[in-house]
Amino acid sequence: MSGQREHQFQLLRQMLLIRRFEEKCAELYTREKIRGFMHLYIGEEAVGVGVIQALGPEDAIVSTYREHGHALVRGIPAGSVMAEMFGKQEGCSRGRGGSMHLFDAKTRFYGGNAVVGGGLPIAVGLALADKMRNRSRVTCCFFGDGAVAEGEFHECMNLSALWRLPLLFACENNRYAMGTRLDVTHSVTDLTKKAAAYDIPAAAADGMDVLAVEAAARSATEHVRSGQGPFFLECRTYRFRAHSMYDPELYRDKAEVEEWKKRDPIPALIRRLKEDEKDAGGTETGLAELERQVSKEIDEAIAFAERGTWEPVAGLLRSVYSDKGLSA
Amino acid sequence: MTYRDAIREAMRKALRADDRVFLMGEDVGRYGGCYAVSKGLLAEFGPERIRDTPLSESAFVGAGIGASLGGMRPIVEIMTCNFSLLALDQILNNAATFLYMSGGQFNVPVVIRMATGGGRQLAAQHSHSLEGWYAHIPGIKVLTPATIEDAHGMLLAALLDPDPVLIFENALLYNTEGELPANAGPVEIAHARICRPGRDISVITYGNSLWKALEAARGLAEKGIEAEVIDLRTLRPLDDHTLVESVTRTHRALVVDEGWRSGGISAEISARLMEQSMYELDAPIERLCGAEVPMPYAAHMEREAIPQVAAIAAAVERMVATHE
After folding, report:
1. What is the pTM of this model?
2. Nearest alpha-carbon partner for B109 in A25, A214, A294, A321
3. What crossing angle do the helices spanning A3-30 and A210-225 adopt, rounded to 10°?
4. End-to-end distance of chain A based on CA atoms, in angstroms?
5. Are A308 and A90 in contact, with CB atoms under 8 Å apart?
6. Is the CB of residue B59 less than 8 Å from the CB of residue A121?
7. pLDDT in tens, A256-278
8. Architecture of the domain whose range is B3-173
9. In 3D, which of A148, A108, A143 has the Cα closest to residue A129?
């Protein structure tokens, strides 16, 4: 298998992992293993998978409340993510955060942030610290089209451009701010145009095509790494599932959802693999193997979460403040 | 040396000692700080470390939080606590939550300084005292230096603290003068301080009201009333022990606070004293707080809206007399 084809299978594997993981999450939610607000990424997998390919282990990610996919691709173990959603202390945030607040110091994953736009200033600060310390690292901040309407977005675009910070603005435009369509909330719906006001270079990528996202993200991070300041990458995508588990989806047509499902990034990549295949049936065999691997990984993640333990309530007040000394 | 100089001196020491420390905020560099606290620092440390920001409170406060996560020790200056509300999301939803929400992985060693308090005819959007309000939030520490030594030492202590620290500087204090010992360093921030011992009543206060309480106590002494005056210094975490110990000796307590009365820090202190020392009390605890109005502009009205020396003295006299 060529390196390129191998890489494409790797992308497929990551998208499949997110898809199957979240399908299980939805099931576990109805079984009340997972509670609280839970936002599924299904349909948008190509964005997280594509963008994160362009990041190295030293880079940082600041994410949103729809972050299971980002966390998995970043390398937070699926068991640790699942245990977090179960509320177990073996979870990546010790059961303190849940679905919307996955954190992991090892992979520099600075949280799912559940206030729209709230992660952007944090990302500015992380990038500022890197610049002041002369560290060659990128901070990637995921946010949605909804966040683009927040004042913090504009403040952060200005600040990061002004200070030429190594920051990748990774906008996941899924066309709806919860249940309100982009054109109902934005006077300018081509979001890349917003970057022009801050003299930030911008690009739009087809967020249903993982290869297109990856290529765009590589070129965007190249710009950021070269010290020329931030880059705004808009990935145009679509959420197949409801906004959260409580959403009856009164605001969009089923036909619209079906139309977008035709552009599902996973079958799209499979089709491409088949077009390029040299050995007949190789893609199907490879896919079956990936499904098997992913299914095993998820089963193990669920078993890990089930085996997990509840933090003793005596620990309720722990970590409101640091126990001792300085870290970071 | 003034209170302002003391803060500047602390910042200068920290900037010299630790290259992770930097200052950012509106007008902190070229202008020298809206209250001239950072005057001269730009020339010494340059624009990278004395960083002027646009008027984007949420972004630069959040950037301070993010930079602290990235290993820096930022000092963020907000012009006045009324403006801090533009950054409240970052302070409450991020700075105060990250350590807990991440299961102890990410502490946020950011220091946020801001001016507070009325008395300068700046009306209803520049004069409020929101420190008690911030003290409601678990995950942050709230310091209210009243003295030159605390203005200097609390900032240094805050920079050594692993958690987010908010420092409220009553703007009327910037010009107050005093001595700073040559060897002054960080001060402890866990305890209230008895500034004037007395046997008849505990007057519990902080910030600029401390000086009013001390003046009132001097006048009362001439009438034979010995008021003990306590500077809270830190509003979160509150040092219950010092307060309870004092009330156990004096059997009366008056809490003086520029903030609004309803649900304020004085109410919290009163409740804690009731919980922990009710049987020591010879009189109901009283509160002397800011009037529950948006701050008026006219000088005589503003004066009336803030606890003053005469009102403190009158309250003490009445409390001591009626419950003899």
Report:
1. 0.96
2. A321
3. 110
4. 43
5. yes
6. yes
7. 999 999 999 999 999 999 998 88
8. 3-Layer(aba) Sandwich (3.40)
9. A108
Tell me which residue of A287, A267, A296, A280 sits closest to A9, measured CA to CA: A287
- CATH architecture under which domain B193-322 falls: 3-Layer(aba) Sandwich (3.40)
Map out the domains of chain B as residue ranges. Answer: 3-173, 193-322
Cα–Cα distance list, B49 to A167, A290, B12, B14, B229 (Å)? 20, 51, 11, 12, 39
Query: pLDDT for B235-280, tens place per residue?
Result: 999 999 999 999 999 999 999 999 999 999 999 999 999 999 999 9
Is residue B126 annotated as part of the catalytic site, yes or no? yes
Question: Which of B126, B152, B169, B302 is labelled catalytic?
Answer: B126
- Residue at B29: amino acid letter: G
Query: For domain A3-304, is the CATH number 3.20.20.70?
Result: no
**DSSP output for A10-45:** HHHHHHHHHHHHHHHHHHHHHTTSS-S-----TT-H
Q: A43 — alpha (psi -120 to 50), left (phi > 0) or beta? A: left
- Give contacts of A92 with chain B, Cβ < 8 Å: 103
A132 contacts on B by Cβ (under 8 Å): 22, 48, 67, 72
The half-sphere exposure of B147 on its side-chain side, counting CA atoms within 13 A, is 19
- Active site annotation includes B57: yes
Q: How far apart (Å, rounded) are the C-alpha atoms in residues A190 and A232?
A: 12
ipTM > 0.90, yes or no: yes
Q: First CA to last CA across chain B, in angstroms?
A: 43
Q: Residue A260: how many CA atoms within 13 Å on its side-chain side?
A: 19
